[in-house]
Specification:
The complex is a heterodimer of chains A (220) and B (803). Chain A is of the alpha/beta class and 220 residues long. Chain A has one domain: Purple Acid Phosphatase, chain A, domain 2 (4-Layer Sandwich), CATH 3.60.21. Chain A is 20% helix and 33% strand. Chain A contains 5 helices and 16 strands. In chain A, strands 8, 9, 10, 11, 12, 13, 14, 15 and 16 form a 9-stranded mixed sheet that branches. In chain A, strand 15 and strand 16 form a beta hairpin. Chain A is globular and about 45 Å long. Chain B has 803 residues and is an alpha/beta fold. Chain B folds into 5 domains: 202 residues, P-loop containing nucleotide triphosphate hydrolases (Rossmann fold), CATH 3.40.50; 157 residues, Rossmann fold (3-Layer(aba) Sandwich); 84 residues; 61 residues, no CATH class; 190 residues, no CATH class. In chain B, helix 3 packs across helix 4 and helix 6 packs parallel to helix 9. The chains are: A alpha/beta (220), B alpha/beta (803). At the A-B interface, strand 1, helix 1, helix 2, strand 11 and strand 12 of A face helix 26 and helix 29 of B.
Chain lengths: 220, 803
């Protein structure tokens, strides 16, 4: 199976190889940091004109996860859009794709630092959202408990027989869970970076995404 | 013809010099639109280039810039400034001579644009940058001459293509501009002449007297070279002996890593404490400058170096050049040897040191080629389009342009003379809109066409970003290495980021000839101490791995055909005889494949003699075919002459593996996901302006805002496979690291003459391949398996159960 199941605050969760979080008991799928419209924003700000297929690619991968899990609820954990203008500038067909994905399920946009306001697409718009014991928000709060967040785009590296392998990764400790970035044009921050290694308490684990996700003690 | 002014001839006379015939020749051709001078080092080449300029300035007042001198090295520009100042003063010319490179201060640069010197010494990048300013025409008004030094080196790289595009621009600003190229000995002067001249101007070639043939020999050592490897550690005592017998010895290596190891070993054996230095491109600039200065003063007895000393800075009294490892390419060997003995008309002296037994054969072949004046080189083909894209952006930074005019201008550049309008339009489209099948950027085009038909930047502020990202030199992702101190210790040099990532604290490696201990990474700097107690890992530097040239490979195959080998040392001749008895020696028009079991595995050794890059590609393609046909290959290793593949099953019929069509299909598929392609893509995308090297001078810091160019490659490959940049990437890879061209010509040469020999055990010629580093595991599921293994191990070590 293309997932790693683990227990977090007494809940059974699944880290999917794609970087999405699946919570079967609540029929809930959560993805973070989609950064839709990133290429458009870069061009708008007179940067290079990157291949304009990032949103389409991100949505295609999301559609695969949604088809596979058929969730009742989808949470986009903030920075779903690279900025608020980018949400407006989405292609007609991309907006249609989102509408199709939303059909028949609850859809929640959590606000992120890139997209701190309402957007002209279906679904509820919230600063944070609680389901059972878990709180979903974009940026981790210091000292929070049972929290699921994104923002940092964590990645983890391991070395095996002289080869170094780096993948976007879920980070998990007793109190918090940080999701990797799901968007196509997103980089990552090493779990060993000061920001993350101070945020995560021992014992922390990392789940490397990929064709077959793998759990390891979080590299510090 | 006009005379050289008396002031100048008098100056020559007071120095006791006479004007060389080629210097006179160059002077007589001063008004030709383009002239190429081919002269050995020490032949008064620079003076030949500058003589018309000095004569003109001695006779006429000239306001503003008169002559631009371009060299591939910043150091060379500074060196020429010093060497020209003396004669100018002594002749009594009140002229200003200044250099302008990446090292020139901002104030100086600003002043030079307003009030340029008479002679400006610069690099291709700095010149291209100058043409990108709106007021370029003011600075360049009245320029008479441009001198391109070391043009043989520039003509092999994108830096040269960029320079020729910049000269085309310059020529439009100064129609009377005359061009001079200065070159070392090359195999094809006509190609360089076409590269230099404004198309279709003629370009005369002036050949200086090449001087006496160099005195090249193979170094005789008491100890035999080993079977494989590139370190040549066995030769240390003999090399030390040579250093003692000469004033200054340059010791060239093919790679930086080998230079480091050799220096380390030489230092350990240097009982007399001879002053010996090391110089290569990954060392810190201060360190390099120290070595250069010591060398000019004559303080050093030997310098271990790489290609970083290939070009013609006058390093004082070098009287011996030693080449460690087979030269791979005869032309480069001859040019390197030219570095010894700068006195014109005295033979330069050089010694070749084969690093292993096979290189003995290569060295002898190279020696014979050099004696026969048979230089090698592959024709380079037309200029790549990524450089063209960058140049379109540079033109846009200088101001609105007319596409027809720009196209006309670019096709006067030698490397782009054959450029078609459609190709140009593709590049323009890429610069304007990104050139995607999906038109997404109509509102945010980089370049827009105005109602009057001219193209301009949508956002004028983009000009600054274009200038900041100008250039074709690829910095690999390297990290600085410093000694760990409170306030940041002494900088030692740079290592590749990937190498740094493989280090754990306590690991040791060699840099600048010292063993250092990795302590940690702080703010993108590798911190090290001198507490070194372990055997060093070797820093892997990017540096190019040269493949043996086609001509040299052919020569080796011809040598194999001899009945016996009186020119080879006995041990090597015996080795070849043994191979002939046990198996066969490879032949030029046939492909020899040996199949044998060894150590529980089946092996296949393919003697293609196609050069390292092509043999590597062949290895990847063959193992892929083998995987498809169920031969379960486990890995392979490639050298310049052969590819050794190991796996579970023996191959008995090689023909299906060598179907050209299947190989080509395999290549297409394999290329798509290949790291070589991704690296090539990154280089081309950076040059073409899709990836920005720096915005505002800050380096990528691994923060989450930046993402890997691999993602761009994958996305483009999936959604827009015919995009211009993917076309460019394919072209580049085919002629560069993938070198598929050489596989194709090998296959054409051998036809169906494939000989598979089944042997009982490993053959003499195949044996060294087992010791060869750089083995490539056949991947596929391999990485996932490694991950599984390692995560299980880590969990167990942490006292956890695998999930």
């Amino acid at each position: 199976m293309n997932e790693v199941t683990f227990s977090f605050v007494g809940q059974n969760l699944s880290a999917l190889g794609s970087g999405a979080l699946w919570w079967p008991d609540q029929s809930l799928l959560c993805v973070s940091d989609l950064h839709l419209g990133k290429s458009e924003r870069i061009a708008r700000r007179s940067g290079p004109t990157l291949p304009p297929y990032d949103s389409r690619e991100t949505l295609t991968r999301l559609a695969v996860d949604i088809t596979r899990t058929n969730p009742g609820t989808v949470i986009c954990l903030g920075d779903s859009f690279d900025d608020l203008d980018a949400s407006a500038a989405l292609d007609f067909s991309e907006k249609q794709d989102i509408t199709a994905l939303q059909a028949g399920r609850r859809w929640i946009w959590i606000e992120g630092n890139h997209d701190p306001g309402p957007i002209d697409l279906g679904g509820a718009h919230l600063v944070e959202y609680e389901v059972g014991p878990l709180t979903f928000r974009h940026i981790a709060h210091p000292g929070a408990q049972a929290e699921v967040s994104g923002h940092y785009h964590p990645k983890a590296q391991l070395r095996a027989r002289g080869r170094s392998i780096t993948r976007p990764a879920f980070l998990i400790d007793q109190a918090r869970l940080i999701l990797p970035a799901y968007g196509t044009y997103t980089g990552g921050l090493h779990s060993s970076d000061h920001a993350l290694s101070t945020l995560m308490n021992d014992p922390a684990m990392a789940i490397l995404t990929g064709p077959q996700p793998r759990i390891i003690p979080m590299p510090r | 013809m006009t005379q050289i002014p008396a002031r100048i001839t008098d100056w020559f006379a007071t120095k006791g010099w006479s004007i060389h015939p080629h210097q006179q020749d160059m002077f007589d051709r001063a008004s030709d639109p383009a002239t190429l001078l081919i002269a050995p080092t020490g032949g008064g080449k620079t003076m030949a280039g500058f003589l018309p300029t000095l004569a003109d300035l001695a006779q006429h007042e000239h306001a503003g810039l008169h002559t631009i001198y371009v060299s591939p090295l910043k150091a060379l520009a500074a060196d020429i400034r010093r060497n020209l100042r003396g004669p100018a003063d002594e002749i009594g010319l009140p002229i200003r001579i200044e250099d302008r490179t990446g090292d020139t201060s901002a104030t100086q640069k600003k002043r030079q644009r307003v009030d340029p010197p008479h002679i400006l010494l610069t690099t291709p990048e700095s010149l291209a940058l100058l043409t990108s300013y709106e007021d370029a025409h003011r600075m360049f008004a009245g320029v008479q001459r441009v001198i391109v030094d070391e043009i043989h080196a520039l003509a092999e790289s994108k830096r040269g293509d960029q320079l020729m595009l910049a000269l085309a621009r310059l020529q439009s600003l100064c129609p009377g501009l005359r061009r001079v190229g200065l070159s070392a000995t090359v195999e094809n002067p006509d190609a360089i002449a076409r590269f230099l001249a404004r198309h279709p101007d003629p370009c005369q070639i002036v050949q200086a007297d090449p001087g006496p043939d160099p005195d090249i020999q193979m170094l005789e050592t008491a100890e035999m070279p080993p079977w494989s490897g590139g370190g040549a550690a066995y030769s240390i005592p003999a090399v030390l002996e040579q250093i003692k017998q000469h004033k200054t010895t340059l010791i060239f290596h093919n790679t930086r890593a080998q230079a480091e190891i050799f220096f380390h070993n030489l230092w350990l054996a240097n009982d007399d404490g001879l002053p010996i230095g090391i110089h290569h491109g990954s060392l810190d600039r201060q360190q390099r400058e120290k070595v250069e200065a010591a060398m000019v003063r004559g303080d050093l007895r030997a310098i271990i170096c790489t290609g970083s000393l290939d070009l013609g800075i006058d390093w004082g009294d070098v009287d011996l050049v030693i080449q460690i490892g087979a030269p791979k390419n005869v032309k480069r060997l001859v040019q390197r040897i030219g570095r010894a003995n700068h006195r014109y008309n005295a033979p330069s002296k050089a010694l070749l040191v084969p690093a292993n037994r096979f290189e003995v054969v290569e060295c002898i072949a190279a020696l014979e080629a050099a004696k026969a004046h048979e230089l090698d080189g592959e024709p380079r083909g037309s200029g790549p389009r990524d450089v063209l894209c960058q140049h379109i952006l540079i033109a846009a930074a200088a101001g609105p342009f007319n596409a027809d005019t720009l196209f006309g201008e670019m096709t006067t550049a030698g490397p782009y003379a054959a450029l078609g309008r459609a190709e140009f339009d593709d590049c323009l489209e890429f610069c304007a809109t990104g050139g995607y099948a999906l038109r997404a950027y109509d509102r945010w085009q980089r370049l827009q066409q105005r109602p009057d038909g001219l193209w301009q930047l949508r956002d004028p502020r983009a000009a600054q970003r274009i200038r900041m990202n100008l250039g074709t030199i690829q910095d690999t992702d390297t990290l600085k290495v410093r000694l760990k101190r409170n306030r940041g210790g002494k900088p030692l040099g740079e290592v590749e980021e990937a190498f740094a990532a493989s280090l754990t604290p306590g690991d040791t490696f060699l840099i600048g000839g010292q063993i250092v201990r990795y302590e940690g990474l702080r703010e993108m700097v590798v911190e090290v101490t001198r507490r070194a107690d372990k055997k060093p890992k070797v820093a892997t530097f990017m540096g190019t791995k040269f493949a043996t040239s086609t001509q040299l490979s052919d020569r080796i195959l011809r040598m194999f055909a001899q009945p016996n080998w009186p020119q080879l040392p006995k041990h090597t001749a015996e080795w070849l005889s043994l191979q002939r008895d046990m198996s066969r020696l490879p032949q030029r028009d046939r492909l020899l494949i040996e199949s044998f079991p060894n150590d529980g595995r089946e092996h296949l050794c393919v003697y293609g003699f196609a050069g390292r890059n092509a043999q590597q590609t062949l290895g990847l393609l063959l193992t892929k075919r083998m995987e498809e046909t169920g031969f379960a290959p486990l890995g392979f290793v490639a050298t310049d002459y052969a590819t050794l593949i190991w796996g579970l099953d023996a191959v008995t019929d090689p023909r299906p593996l060598f179907q050209m069509d299947a190989l080509r299909d395999g290549l297409e598929n394999w290329l798509a996901g290949n790291a070589v392609m991704k690296r090539t893509f990154r280089a081309s995308a950076t040059i073409a302006g899709l990836i920005e090297r720096n915005t505002g001078g800050q380096r990528k810091s691994g923060r989450q805002a930046t993402f890997s160019s691999d993602i761009l490659y994958d996305t483009l490959h999936k959604y827009d496979p015919n995009h211009l940049l993917l076309q460019i990437t394919r072209e580049e890879a085919m002629r560069g690291l993938v070198d598929f061209g050489r596989i194709e010509s090998m296959m054409a040469r051998i036809g169906d003459r494939i000989d598979l020999l089944r042997l009982k055990h490993v053959s003499p010629l195949a044996a060294p391949l087992f010791l060869e580093p750089g083995k490539v595991p056949v991947k596929g599921a391999a990485e996932e398996r490694l991950l599984a293994e390692e995560s299980a191990r880590l969990l167990q070590a942490a006292g956890l159960e695998p999930g």
